[in-house]
Structure formats: structure tokens, C-alpha cells
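$ run holo --ligand "D-glutamic acid" --emit C-alpha cells
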Amino acid sequence: MAPTEDSIKIGVFDSGVGGLTVLKALLELVPEADYVYFGDTARLPYGSKSIETVSKYAILAARYLERHDAQMLVIACNTATALALDVIKQAVSVPVIGVVEPGVERTAAESKNRKVVVLGTEATVSSHAYRKALAVRGIEAREKACPLLVPLIEEGWVEHPVSEQVSRIYLGEAFTDGYESADILLLGCTHYPLLKPVLRRVAPRHVEIVDSAQSTAQAVAKMLGENCGRESAPREAAHGAHLKFFATDSAEKFRRLGTRFLGQPIDNVEHVDLRE
Ligand code: DGL
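-- output --
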């Protein structure tokens, strides 16, 4: 469906190209929206940075998207959501949705053993945002930082023996010491959906994978559907969707790398220089 005069404009924010996995899921479930995407490629990775730094960057990006007429914000970055969702909400006047709660909700609905494993960046894991949100729902979580996965995925080493071996080691360390019975593997990082086939192969057979990108898109679709008095947004092809991208590092690099994450060619990228 082509965007109409009254299409909602959704701002999507990530530290880089990874959040395009969330945009991809949104395009499938909410194709009638306009999208403005901000990738803070000059400052990534966020996953190794402090709460103060991530909050400062995330607020700048959120305000930028609001100035570009975003009527709601999706914080696609797990690290920014885990560390800074509350301060982002305070910094803007439009509704803000992060990726942690939707992934946790879905996990809570699916887990029978009430024990799960969450994968994320160092910063996401150190914040214990997932563990706390899951504990409220009576679920025990082992959070496992997987710092090698983001660079491997960005290198394009998805179906690659090195990535498979690294994933095997991380999951081996996570599904142990009382967590053999964990029945959900929650992907708490923008990049990990690309590795889903590999993770499926190396995770214990009984484990179900919950993808926070997918869960977030479902939550947005539900929210918008409810607001319009519908069950969910119409599911139509994404080709007509109106997309605009901003990146703080090279637009050309964003286009090249981002295409793999979005699963379609990217044009309309503008370089922006955000001053602190
Ligand atoms: N977008 C980040 C996340 O989802 C991963 C990349 C980074 O560390 O900046 O946590």
C-alpha cells in the first residue's frame, strides 16, 4: 500500500544497521506506515559503552527523529532500550516503544519451564534489564554476553564455520549449570536474527527461539491496530512503504551493509552530523 496523507510516521532508532532487522519486521506487519530510520553508525558499537554515553547518544537521536516528524519512536537497539529507555521517553513528547518488553512478553507467554537464556551485548547483559523484566513474570533468566557475534555478522560471516563454532561455545556456556532445562532462547540484540538458522542448529533441540525484532513489530502492529479499532495492520507488500534513512557515518557504507539486514536495496540515505 502506498503511504497516504494520514499515514503514521514511525521513527526507528539504532546504533547502526542492526535495527534494520526490526524495520524489516515492521515493514511486514505495518506496511502502510512511513518510516524514518536513524543509524548512529559513527558512534557504534553501543554494546560496549556506559549507560551515561549510550543515554546521551540515544537522546540526541530520538530528538532528531522527533524533529523529522516521527509520531512514535521504536528503539530498535537492545542496548539503548536496556540502558536508556526511560530517559529517552522523558526527552521526547511522542510515544516510545523499546525492544525489551515485547521480547519478554512473548517469552513469558511461551516458556513452560520458566527458565530461559537471553543473548545480548555486554552492556545489555550488565544492565540486567532482561533478567529484571523476566523475574517480574516469574521467569529465571541466564543472560549471556556474546560480544563476538556482532562483528562476525557485520563481516557477513553468517553461514560460516567460525560463527557456528563461536555460537556453539556461547550456547554451551549458557545452557549449563541448572539451565539445561531452559526452553526459550531470547535474541536480545538487533543483529542476532540474521544468525537464527545457525543458532537453531546449535541450540538444544527442545529450545524455542524468540526474536525481539519480531516481537516488537507485533507489539507495534497491535498498538496501532488497537488505536485504529482494528485487530492488526493489513499485511501487504512493503514495496510502497516510504522509507528515509539517516546515518552518522558514511551513507554509502550504510547502504552497502544495511541491504543485508533489511533484505532489500536501500536508497534515500542521508549523512547527518549530530553535534553533542
Ligand atoms: N544494536 C546493538 C544492540 O541491539 C548491537 C550493536 C552495538 O553494540 O551497537 O544491542
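-- notes --
The chain has two domains: 9-99+216-271, 100-212.
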